[in-house]
Amino acid sequence: MVQITASMVKELRQKTDAPMMECKKALTESEGDLVRAEELLRVKLGSKAGKAAGRVTAEGLVGVYIADGQKTGALVEINCETDFVAKNDDFIAFVDQIARIVADQGPADIAALNALAMGEGTVESTRTALIGKIGENVSVRRFQRFETSDTLTSYVHSGKIGVLVDFSGDVDTGKDLAMHIAATRPRALDANGVAPEDIAAERSVAEQKAAESGKPAEIVTKMVEGSVQKFLKEVTLLSQPFVKNDKQSVAQMLKEKGAGINRFGLYVVGEGIEKKSNDFAAEVAAAAGGS
Fold it and tell me: How many domains in the chain?
């Protein structure tokens, strides 16, 4: 039998926000499989068990730059260790410069970006010099570059959420789209863009919930399909209720405006990064004990 350790329970609790005893039960049932245990908790506790997974913990900024008559643009995320440094003028200037370089030169990946010229050196040497100046680690995490024959627009909320949109239509419609995306954080334009593994995970949870209902097989099948379709409606942009008028979907709004959307980029600072937390009380106690 697999031994369920305190660290395993702690890790599952941090991911799911579920009560400690429920985490231990799920781990015991799953024989220590964290992924399976999380699934079991979602079946038992519903969406509450997944809420901690999307928490933003790492610091930094999202930067956007649009050029060439709104035909070329870039979205970048640059990370640092503290929010204090994210407000530093040198750090902000670095983010803005990286966005401009990506838009203007179109590097293939982070390695190619790091090798590009910047100031008196390269992006990488400039980053290293910035680390020495501000005293915190700085990393260029990710970027997207768009080129279009239509129009690009963007929206950045407090430097922490950034959106770049490739669309057709009037300026106000583009702004509305960008703000809607920042507010609802869709995963894709439509169901075709949702990762198969995400759909499979939702289907698995729905099947387990439906199986517990005790209803006939044909009803269970309908329940599962209904749950999957509800999930897809929630996470795909065109199916979502438009934030400025929830009586119509984004697709209906676009049709009414004679507009369209080709693609979008969305970054949330620190998304998917677990920030190390320091127990300062424990550190002080340890230091006092050592002295």
Answer: 2
Distance CA 16, CA 50 (A): 5
Helix axes 20-29, 34-45, angle to 10 degrees: 120
- Whether residue 7 lies inside any domain: the answer is yes
pLDDT digits (tens, 9 = 90+) for 56-66: 337 999 999 99
User: Do 65 and 98 fall within a single domain?
Assistant: yes
Q: What is the CATH number of the domain that holds 28?
A: 1.10.8.10
Distance separating alpha carbons of residues 78 and 92, to the nearest angstrom: 9
The Cα 114–Cα 95 span in angstroms is: 13
Q: What is the pTM of this model?
A: 0.75
Would you say 9 and 28 are in contact if contact means Cβ atoms under 8 Å apart? no
Residue 54 tokens, joined: 């999307």
- Rounded Cα–Cα distance for residues 164 and 170 (Å): 16
Q: Kindly state the tokens that stand for 181.
A: 């995306």
33 and 110 co-located in one domain: no
State which amino acid sits at residue 119: G
